[in-house]
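The passage that follows is intended for readers who have already worked through the single-chain material. We present the inputs for a multi-component assembly, then the predicted structure in tokenized form, and finally a short commentary. You are encouraged to pause after the input and sketch how you expect the pieces to fit together before reading on.
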Amino acid sequence: MSRIGVFVCHCGENISRTVDVERVAAEIGKLPGVALATDYKYMCSDPGQGLLKKAVAEHKLDGLVVAACSPRMHEKTFRNAAKAAGLNPFLCEMANIREHCSWVHEDREEATAKAIDIVRLMVERVKKDKALQPITVPITKRALVIGGGIAGIQAALDIADCGHQVLLVEREPSIGGHMAQLSETFPTLDCSQCIMTPKMVDVANHPNIKLYTWSEIEHVDGYIGNFQVTIRKKARSVDMDKCTGCGICMAKCPQKNIKSKFDCGLGTRPAIYVPFPQAVPNTPVIDRENCTYFKSGKCGVCAKVCGPGAVDYDQQDELITEPVGAIVVATGFELYSIAEKPKGSSIKGYGEFGHGTIPDVIDGMTFERLASASGPTGGKILRPSDGREPKQVVFVQCVGSRAREKGISYCSKVCCMYTAKHTMLYKHKVHDGQAYVFFMDARTPGKSYDEFWRRAVEEEEAVYIRGMVSRLYQKGDKIVVMGSDVLVGVQVEIEADLVVLATAVQPRQGADSLAQKLGISYDTYNFYSEAHAKLKPVECATAGIYLAGACQGPKDIPDTVSQASAAAAKVMTLFSRDQLEREPIVARVNERNCVACFSCKKVCPYGAVEEKEIRDRQGNLIRVVAYVNPGVCGGCGTCQATCPSKSVELDGYTDEQVMAMIEAL
Amino acid sequence: MKNVLNYSYYPGCSLHASAKEYDESTKGVFKALRIGLNEVPDWFCCGATPAHNVDELLSLSLCAKNLSLADNVEGDLAVACAACFSRLKTAQHRLTENDIKRKQVETAIAGAVSLEKPVKHLLEILAKDYGLDRLADAVKKPLNGLKVATYYGCLLTRPPDVPELDCCEAPTIMENVIAATGAEPVAWSHRLECCGANFTLSRPGVVLNLSNAILASAKRAGADCIMVACPLCHGNLDIRQKEIEEANGTRYGMPVFYMTQLLGLAVGVPAGKLGLDSMIVNPLPLLKEKGLV
Amino acid sequence: MHAEKQKHDFEPKIVAFVCTWCTYAGADLAGTSRMQYPSNVRVLKFPCTGRIDPVFILRAFQRGADGVLVSGCHPGDCHYMAGNLHARRRFAAFRGLLDFVGVDLNRLQFSWVSAAEGGKWVDVVTELTERIRAMGPMEEFKALETEECWSGALATPELQEAYKAI
Amino acid sequence: MKNSKMYLSTETMNLGFVRKVEALSGSSVRRCFQCGKCSAGCPMRTFMEHPPNRIVRLLQLGQWERVLAGRSIWYCASCETCSTRCPNKVDLAAIMDALRKLSWDANGPSKESYVQLANRLFIENIKTYGRQYEMRLAAVFNIKSGQFMKDFLLGPKLLTKGKLKVFHQKNRNIGEIEQIFSRIEEMRKKGEAP
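Having made your guess, compare it with the prediction:
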């Protein structure tokens, strides 16, 4: 007969408000095999855990059920407590009567009945629980950082400085990301490139950092401490070892009028190019789509002028597989586009703002390039349409953000601040110009942030209009802005020379497919999900993968850098050990029952199933059976549900355990 | 090619009165293009704006009644008036989504609500079912040189989920249709603004104000004329144009055509069968100048 | 706006087999967001929908479940890469079998609910509960229950005996 | 009343009215965060005393009297610009419909009589004839509103253009329309329809 202890938590009032915890304890106490059933205000607190430990000794308990919050919250806490009390931690289970019961039901009677059911099911499960021993696996002390923006750079430098090797993978030809595109940064207005480029050079020169630019993640295998990553090194058409970065190829390339993505289409670049002069590495890439040689087979000028003979038209994509122990994902963001979206997309553009067809309606990043001293206009604010200096500039905040009709309901967090910055930069460069800002709320929490915004209003005389814009349309060479001021309660019309839209921050295109390769979860907008909103903000639910920067949610530079360093610290915590204990939730084969059909092998997503030969003492082969490599097994249990002879068991989720629960329904 | 397109037809009240030239020219164009058009017998008023303004249930019931009457006539339901189109589509939409409202309407009309029949505006029929290429082929007298301001008004494309005709903020269907005739659609700013609609009766001052902005915008864009697909818009822009000019001290002299009148000219419907003489702002000087009559 | 609480004659028993990474987390999110849904559902957690043996569903029906929900990660989002796809195939075949033995397939629902879709969890559970409530109790399998005697244990002497004989 | 102080309490905020509006319109009122995009694009704003966003704000505060007493709701042209562009999917056009219905049912505490009169005549025309006859509508409107000379010059012009039908007949199936009206009335008497 089992001796199970059941502890029902009040969670302050979170549970006891709707669930009669005393009654739950009393009812459960009547079940056979339950040696103790009691309730307590806060089970997770120190005295709560103490209560549990004491009970194990006093009542000689051989199984525990803690009826409290979700196991995702505190399973580890209570299993550790069980361990401290001398019990195998896997004999301790949680019954979720908070998230799945007290918080989602109002009727006290119903909620209590449900709570009793939930706990009863768990009691029956614990009766079938078996002691499990943790599995230890070695750790490869090398990290992969995906994305070479400020988040990836910071994380890579921190880990590398700690003495571990880092692979930094960047999709574009150069690292730097969006921060390299910015003009000046709030709230101090220091030049973005001035603080960014030294860091980029540090990355290039760091002995522990291996840089893969113009590369993408192709495939990821393995698990925490033991990932196998396949990187696609796209054909650069330039030999990185030979190239000296002299730039003569770019100067001589006859194809000069390709719109520069880095300059948001305001400037042009040649077909063989580096995105910007301070690029790291300073090795050009041939844009094969626009290169005359690749299009017609004629030209070849770059190869002819290249002294070291670095241009290589025959270069092919290369696939490189590297072992790493931890992964930091720092893929960043992109700006929402107001252009019409393809049918079926849940995100809509802004037809009322012209769907991006009015040339002098630009987004915030384009304005950054206009204002940047190294930008296509040399830092002069000039209209894209006719190169005139705009005298009336209208800024519109919350374009795409906080607009659930368009498909995005979140706040993009950085727009209030960068719009205030834009009005200042504009005023500094066009003294007789006037900036207007249509805004809904000015959200400026942060050190020196609100002061910054107030400065834009009070000293730089930006006119802030509390209201939104219904429509923009071209009238002659002006753009008519139809807005309203809800404080006055009247409509506002401004004939603007330039309109700057603070468009929403979105995850990168393809963020979902990268997440699928990594096996990490993401929300409806494709932002990557952290393991816990408050207590595990940089970890993924998938062990060994960490998040940094705007790929997890909109963030400004200071927040991004903090999170990147936090992710790096998590990687270093992992690397501080030589071996890793992992949950022993793995499949085991009952070799006597196995009929060697290898259905399990076919369905195993990890390739953990091997064919094992059983021989007699003389070495004669008797038969072949399946064997699950516990180091590789991910613990999904698909093999068990598939096995026709019921010869595989997933520890922690055995048929016996599951059936015990179903029987108790 | 054999006549394959066949529609049931809901003209709406205006097309039997103040917009009879719209009715006449629609029939003319469809005949010329060999598209069948059979009027639903004994149709009722759809309730238009006044009904849904104060009594949604009445509005939905009237539309549901008309939809069930239309079931007796073969072919998708062709609707000419933008207001009727909007009401019928909205009714289909609301009644599909809302079981409670559907049950109430079923009680009101003492019968099942039928929502299957596709309701199509003439524009949709011409641009999508008939096809722009075929339309261009059918043109006998191209309207070359005629600059047309295509006016959608509010109801043709709104609200976004209901009419499914075209993008509600940047539609192109009217431009595409008129461009097929060789005419030149102008880019102008007020094609989706409200003309004042049914305030024409109760508060004509409103109309003078709003419609003036529309006429001014069309003039600014260099349009020779305005093309509409709604009798209410036509009423405000054409019938009240003189008043608008007087109230604002300007002169527009801007003919306002129904889309089918211009299409009729292009596909060779005799000018006498297009009701051009019913227009208040005389279009003949313009048409003569362009060599179209 | 809270709907008026209604009392019903029949409260169905709904069993949900869910994966721990997506749907269980989604149900947690519904909780942390304080959404409300009918209390009829009992959640059984699995690492992955791939672990869910069709036998569990049959047994749940026998043990008095009036409706069964199986829910996991969206296709492509499986924490274990492809477990949910195997589950999908398996249950596609299983539905046919269930139909054959005369179970109304409306009693069995499959869905994808991600960790971010607390609202969807609420919708799925609410709709299923309402549907089953309208269908009434599931009587077909309860009769069989008395004849069935699988203990759930695998290492029974009979089985041992049988294997020895192979 | 427009500028008098609002004393907010559970008694002075008529949230039951707001729920009625939400049920009738099928649109949330609370979802609005007062960005003012509706008012920015409203073609009728200049004719209203409360801009559309303020109508929603007053509803959020349960100030139904302030909403119904004004003429704003009767100046809405149902052009749906607000509903189309609202970032929060607040269907303001439907909310306006609901408010007009509630005002209508309460026998119009609102000041805007011309629009109400025009609506009433329009619906009466449907009930009597099945279809709309503009001539009759305009004539009766002018008589009832006391503006005998309104659009005096337009009439003859339209007549000669054949745009006004002087003679009109009832639909053959007018009985069916009458029944729709009476069934709706009956449902309302029994409280089965709003």
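Commentary: Residues 14-165 of chain C form a domain with the Rossmann fold fold (CATH 3.40.50). Chain C touches chain D through one residue (CB under 8 Å). How closely did your sketch match?
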